[in-house]
Design goal:
Elements: E1 2-5, E2 11-18, E3 22-28, E4 31-36, E5 46-52, E6 56-57, H1 61-68, E7 80-90, E8 95-104, E9 107-122, E10 128-139, E11 158-172
Antiparallel strand pairs: 1-4, 1-11, 2-3, 2-11, 3-6, 4-5, 5-7, 7-8, 8-9, 9-10, 10-11
């Protein structure tokens, strides 16, 4: 069954170490995608997400401008980063691993998202909604995001490991009746 992203209630958030002593948090504001869910066989789910790299927001204009540059996302040449699922591995009633290909810039690598199913219900507008939380840890260098500055006291300005959290709310797409 087809589902659409509830963009107003879906968030892609990340955090990365800054100067080895704290974490900077950010999000991507613009995304789209399709999800196919089989309630009877969740392991057959298919997910495709596109994220506008220029929509990065860390609440600091200067930093966001730098992240959009060729040092990082190079949004002029690579306006989208994409995720396309390959398989689902269930390991509990409400938990699974979603394995798929993440493409950032021109590099595609397989990642694993740990997914928690948060439930399904009929929303106040009569539509069926479902919620999921997904997390992963990525090394930004695996996608060629290697810019950094060595600190005088040791360490680097920007950490390599990125913690990612996705809060995903879906709305079921009504099936259209075939009219003869």
């Amino acid at each position: 069954m087809a589902w659409q992203l509830d963009k107003a209630h879906t968030n892609i958030m990340f955090s990365v170490r800054h100067m080895m002593i704290t974490k900077v948090r950010g999000s991507f504001e613009k995304l789209d995608g399709t999800v196919e869910l089989d309630e009877q066989h969740p392991e057959n789910a298919r997910v495709e997400i596109q994220v506008e790299t220029a929509s990065i927001n860390t609440r600091d204009v200067q930093r966001d401008t730098h992240l959009r540059s060729g040092d990082f996302f190079n949004v002029e040449q690579y306006p989208l980063m994409t995720f396309k699922s390959k398989r689902v591995e269930r390991f509990g009633e409400d938990r699974a691993r979603l394995i798929g290909d993440l493409t950032i810039r021109d590099v595609t690598r397989e990642i694993t998202l740990d997914v928690e199913y948060n439930g399904m219900l009929k929303n106040p507008w009569g539509m069926t909604s479902a919620g999921f939380t997904a997390t992963s840890k990525l090394n930004r260098k695996d996608w060629g995001l290697t810019w950094n500055v060595a600190l005088e006291t040791g360490g680097v300005l920007v950490g390599e490991e990125v913690d990612m959290t996705i809060e995903l709310e879906l709305i079921q797409v009504p099936e259209t009746a075939n009219v003869a």
